[in-house]
Description:
Blueprint: H1 2-30, H2 40-52, H3 55-60, H4 62-77, H5 79-89, H6 99-129, H7 140-161, H8 167-186, H9 194-204, H10 232-240, H11 246-250, H12 252-255, H13 262-275, H14 282-286, H15 288-291, H16 299-303, H17 311-323, H18 329-341, H19 349-358, E1 371-374, H20 376-381, H21 383-398, E2 403-404, H22 414-418, H23 422-439, E3 443-446, H24 449-458, E4 467-470, H25 471-478, E5 493-495, H26 499-502, H27 509-517, H28 554-563, E6 569-572, H29 575-586, E7 595-598, H30 599-609
Parallel strand pairs: 1-2, 1-3, 3-4, 5-6, 6-7
Helix pairs in contact: 1-8, 1-10, 2-9, 4-6, 6-7, 7-8, 9-10, 10-13, 21-30, 25-27, 28-29
One iron/sulfur cluster is lined by residues 241-247, 262-263, 266, 303-304, 306, 308.
Amino acid sequence: MSTLILWLLVLGFVAAFAAQAATRVRLVAAAPNTISLENPAFRVWRFLVDVVLQRQTIRERPVPGLAHALVFWGFVAFGGYTVTEFLDGLGIVDLTQTRWFYAYRVALTPFAIAVLAGIAFLIVRRAIFRPVELGKTVSIESVVIGFFIATLMVTFLLGWRLDEESTAGRANWWIHALVILAFLALIPASKHFHLVLSPITVFLKSPELGNVPNLDFEKEQVGLEVVKDLGSKTVLDAFTCVECGRCQVNCPAWGAGKELNPKAIILQTQEALLTGPRDAKLAGIYSEKVLWQCTTCGACENQCPVGIEHLPLLIGSRRGLVSNGDAPDYLGGMYNNLERRSNIWGLSYDQRQKFVDASGLEIFDPAKHDVLVWLGCAGAFEADFQKSLRSLFEILRARQVKFGVLSKERCNGDPAKRTGNEYMYQELANANIEDLKAARPKKILTSCPHCVKTIGDDYRKFGYAVEIVHSSVFVEELTRDIRGVAPDGGGSYTYHDPCYLSRYGGKVDEPRELLARFGAQVSEPVRNRDNPYCCGAGGGLLFADKEEEPGSRISDVRFKQLRDTGAGTVVTACPFCSIMLKGAQTSAPGAGDVQFVDLMTFVNGRLAKH
Length: 610
Ligand code: SF4
Ligand code: SF4
């Protein structure tokens, strides 16, 4: 009789699970395919460290992360136990009296205690401490799931004490089984579906941060406009979000009090997929304003423990708006500059030529030069950053590096790509690729992290691969023989990691090594190394009208963080960070004494004195 009841219950609950899961599977299957398995070796490695070892979960929040990892490892460890007990209960096969099952139960006992400790910590944190990223209210669902997990562990442990043939023993077994079945039915419609989906989404996450594949205009692709345009990986991501809020608390826009919240974007996507019409406009779901607040810093994607990719969604939605002529006004001027003059400032190329001539630069010749120096829009036209480039040239000359530049450069296309103007990006990229192919450099050197990312990663999607290095990396290698530079007496320093160099490029040690080598004492700001707080320039926001933004400026928040280190000098390594942070300084009361220096200018100054 009890076997029959268990069969009926199992079939009922499995059917409930399957029905809810099927709705989500159908939505993934109906979406345009955006799933790629490129670079499988990296994906397997990341699966091992981020799913099996829970690195990403533990890294940012060690204590709650470890508590979560204990629950996860327990969940996995109990898989075989649950299956074995159900096989017995359903009358299929009884393996519960075997020696190995006894040994397995013994081995599971410490897991059960660890899971109980982990879940108790997580419930207390959620219900009593309530960190802001978890939302204002304690969800009933979280409490129920926590209670279920605790009940499973307690009933397992009681199994050692109770005679399984006794009434108490049988009641204990049934409570355990019923909780598992209820858990199964609850999972797909809750954030706990991540238990099933996150190993898949982590594996499918692009090895490249902020990977936004090119649009294929021959296939009439224009970007994301309505719900049914969302790609299959994005749809899968929407059902995987565990609502931990790590993306939210690391987002500089949210941190500066703006409306953009990457967690909300994912949850709104989920709701739109499940409840809204398939032709609902994305700009209506997220609000246009919010879509233009993203700096594309990549913090959300980089911190997400379950492999969710926000940038294909955010930039894809911008593409949809741009294709309909709905870009904000401030981008119109920049697009115009790119179209007419191929640079973001709209300046005439004579000015670049003047800088090239005044700096004594040669036109690159692969037979004569070791590297091609890519000036970028900032290097070609921005007086302040040209000082940094002149320092780089002096370092290169002092170390006998032979270098040249292209006779003409266009903007690499980053501001067009990240703001969703894909057509303009592809035009600029293809023209630059043609020139670079003709010039045949083996190595490109630049001081702009955005150029490193775009030429190094994004141009590869057009089949053009070249080694491109940031000046901090190149010069660090070039000056390794230098020892014993006296400590700089010019005061204390702090270093601002540019998002596109550190988070995207992983280059966090080289700038610090250079600063240390040349005698700077560096105080680290909060949010440093591969998780810096953005300066606010990326994603076209360099051109935004700051006065119209809600909340405070991202650059003001970052400047304050840098100033709070107490350092007298802020070292930058990106032209756009420098512009934003200097702009923030002008509006910060009493901050006039803070100095700025570009990394190359600092190194060259110290090298000259050495
Ligand atoms: S990329 Fe940066 S600014 Fe954009 S949503 Fe993510 S964290 Fe926020
Ligand atoms: S998107 Fe990722 S980081 Fe953000 S709340 Fe969801 S699971 Fe957490």
